[in-house]
Amino acid sequence: MVTDPIADYLTRIRNAVMANHRIVEIPSSNLKKEMTKILFEKGYILNFKFEEETKPGVIKIALKYHPVTKVSAISSLSRISKPGLRKYVNAEHLPRVLNGLGIAIISTSHGMMTDKEARPKKIGGEVLCYIS
To answer: Which of 8, 58, 88, 102 could make an S-S bridge to 132, C-beta 3.0–4.6 Å?
Structure first.
């Protein structure tokens, strides 16, 4: 049993990037699906596929690498809000990751979004992770 599924999700991606894998498989949940969609929209992953045939569904993520230098599009993933210490912010205190070069994934009452999407809407929420 995994006590922190978001940390497990980020760790699986981080380990796959460090091992230069092309595809990583992650157990599925609605929260992980939304995070995967955000990573795809922001260009951190190449593609993704939700497979629901098996009882615990699986998310297959194709990682993105530079064609010449083979450097991953994801340089760092860090979990911010943890089960033991939740991290909530209001709209005025939304974090900036690498001075705007990275993204923070925020879980809001209006769904999952990045810090850049939440700032103009003046929405705060739980800061799940930083990605750069």
So the answer is: 102
